[in-house]
Description:
This protein is mainly beta. The chain has one helix at about 5-10; strands at about 25, 40, 45, 60, 70-75, 80-85, 100-105, 135-140, 145-150.
Amino acid sequence: MLTDQEASEGWVLLFDGQSLDGWRDFKGTTGAAITAPWKAEKGTLTSLGLGSDSTGYIVTDKQYENFIIAFDWKISDGGNSGFLYHVVERPEYKVPYVTGPEYQLIDDAGFPSPIEEWQKAAADYAMYVCDTTKKFSKKLVTGTLQRSSLTMSCGTLA
């Protein structure tokens, strides 16, 4: 939910906490049913864990040029995902990660293989490592909770 002040300042909610309204499949049609493995569940935009390197991507219906995005995220034990931005949708691009940078979402401590600093949570994947002085994580029974802001290439505690 946005406060009255946030709304007056031009902030926009990307997720209403109840539905996938405003989202569509990568290179899909606005208004069409989402086929990617995502759902709105208990106020959370939830991946069902059925995507692959080449499937399972969703994008916002609207495009944003200049933005600040803030979100909390959870990931399953050993999980690996990401938040891609500045993605280009054209026929020659089969997947979004070939055009857009990826804010890495991963269980640093529980990932089953060794990972490099540029692969860890809050890194701009394969581009910039996270500023660990700004990284916040809290282990929960159900996974890892992270607070993130894409004002720069790394998470900041808002």
